[in-house]
Design brief:
Helix content of chain B: 55-70%
Order of helices and strands of chain A: HHHHHHHHH
Strand content of chain A: under 5%
Largest sheet of chain B: none
Distance between the termini of chain B: 54 Å
Oligomer: heterodimer
Helix content of chain A: over 70%
Structural class of chain A: mainly alpha
Mean pLDDT of chain A: 92
Number of helices of chain A: 9
Mean pLDDT of chain B: 79
Order of helices and strands of chain B: HH
Shape of chain A: globular
Chain lengths: ~240, ~55
């Protein structure tokens, strides 16, 4: 069992596995998105306070969740690479970063468009919003730092340190609404309390969140394949792969 | 969010009222539109980099 797991730590073994998994995750992402959008626009009722503006929640919350979760996963891979010197780990971290940055941008963008009708401002320097903006800069800094260092081993190490230091920002984002007086509302969904929303709204949000997970896995796997081919371009198996393609 | 709204299906009546989103069309469609654009751009960039690495 463990030997099987470690077998896929080799880029050469992981490459075809990733290739086989991508279509499945892509189809799941598509189906879940369609189901989520259907619930979001045709099943979930109008909010009695916010009217239809609240429908932004079906993108905003899943995107914000993914932005934090992907950062932790990215830093986790980077940390494993730093500790164990495994080649694939740094590649995985690089593969996750752009998708994480995309979800962070989407969370900020949809938040701005939701803030305007509900708070009267696209942007305020509130703890939640500011720490999420810092998250975007951490992702962009990670990507920029790695691409600025030509040697992949050193790039992985430098990136890993930045990613690990930046992890401190994730609990700050998550707990900001409790630690400070923020304009941003508290969590509508938590593990300890019953959710403070209609069950169809919750269903739509969970479907969209699952879709975001599947999408993230598919894009990370697709990107890691490109990175493997790029980094291992001088390896015999990549040459054969290229000849076959 | 009241219990009375539970289980009732959303009925927009017309395409116009669907697009208007109760007056919040700009904000709702601005959110969904830009998100869709980001996803399309990311998928396109993935396909391009795949093509480059094969060449």
């Amino acid at each position: 069992m463990t030997s099987d797991l470690f077998r896929f730590a080799a880029p050469q073994a992981f490459f075809p596995l990733a290739g086989k998994l991508i279509p499945w995750f892509s189809v799941l992402a598509g189906v879940l998105t369609l189901a989520g959008l259907y619930v979001a626009f045709f099943v979930a009722p109008t909010d009695h306070q916010q009217g239809e503006a609240y429908r932004i929640i079906f993108i905003h919350v899943p995107a914000a969740w993914m932005s934090m979760f992907l950062y932790v996963v990215m830093a986790g891979w980077a940390g494993i690479g730093l500790a164990l010197n495994t080649r694939l780990s740094g590649m995985m971290a690089s593969a996750i970063a752009p998708t994480g940055a995309m979800f962070t941008f989407v969370a900020l963008w949809t938040g701005a468009l939701w803030g305007r009708p509900t708070w009267g401002a696209y942007w305020v320097w509130d703890a939640r919003l500011t720490s999420e903006l810092v998250l975007l800069f951490l992702y962009l800094g990670f990507i920029a730092l790695k691409s600025a260092i030509p040697d992949p081993v050193r790039a992985d190490r430098a990136g890993a340190i930045l990613a690990l230091v930046g992890v401190v920002n994730v609990p700050i984002i998550y707990f900001s609404v409790q630690w400070w007086n923020t304009l941003h509302q508290g969590a509508s969904v938590s593990l300890t309390r019953a959710p403070s929303m209609a069950s169809t709204m919750l269903l739509g949000m969970l479907l969209m969140a699952l879709a975001a997970w599947m999408y993230s896995i598919a894009t990370a796997l697709s990107r890691v394949r490109s990175i493997i081919l790029e980094r291992e371009r001088d390896a015999e198996w990549v040459r054969m792969q290229r000849a076959a393609a | 969010m009241g219990a009375d709204a539970e289980g009732r299906r959303m009925n927009w009546g017309s395409l116009d009222s669907f697009l208007a989103m109760g007056g919040y069309g700009f904000y709702v469609w601005g959110s969904y539109g830009v998100t869709a654009l980001c996803i399309v751009l990311e998928i396109l960039s993935l396909n391009t980099s795949k093509g480059n690495s094969k060449a």
